[in-house]
Fold this sequence. Notes:
This protein is an alpha+beta fold and about 140 residues long. About 30% of the residues lie in helices and about 25% in strands.
Amino acid sequence: MRRAAGRGSRLRSHVGLLPRTRPCARATAAQGEREHLTAEAQDADSDSTPALYRAGLALRPERLTGLAETLEWTAAGDGVVSFAREGGFRCLVNLSPALVALPSGSAVLLGSGPLASGPSGSELVPGDTCVWFSGAVRDRAE
């Protein structure tokens, strides 16, 4: 019966015989395309996901401290999730491809992407975008 150590030492001797290879051009190009995803590059980009998280974390003590723990679902249409908390804090997530208007009188606190302008200066939330805003709760979800 052979011991496992003997087999491992043979394997190590074969590993040293493998030829050295250079990275292929495609792998090198892909690495260059990912440079904007490094922590350093993301820290320098005000539109990056880490910047969005930092802004949200900074708003939490200012806007959410002292609010009731409960939330109220609000009507927002198909493909849209919307809720409010006492004190005027609201969140709207547009999962649909359509533009969704923010209620009039809303003050945007934070958004995961740029908003579009609608008629009469209204703010429209594009698809795949989340917005934290303040404003009165008008419509309740059924």
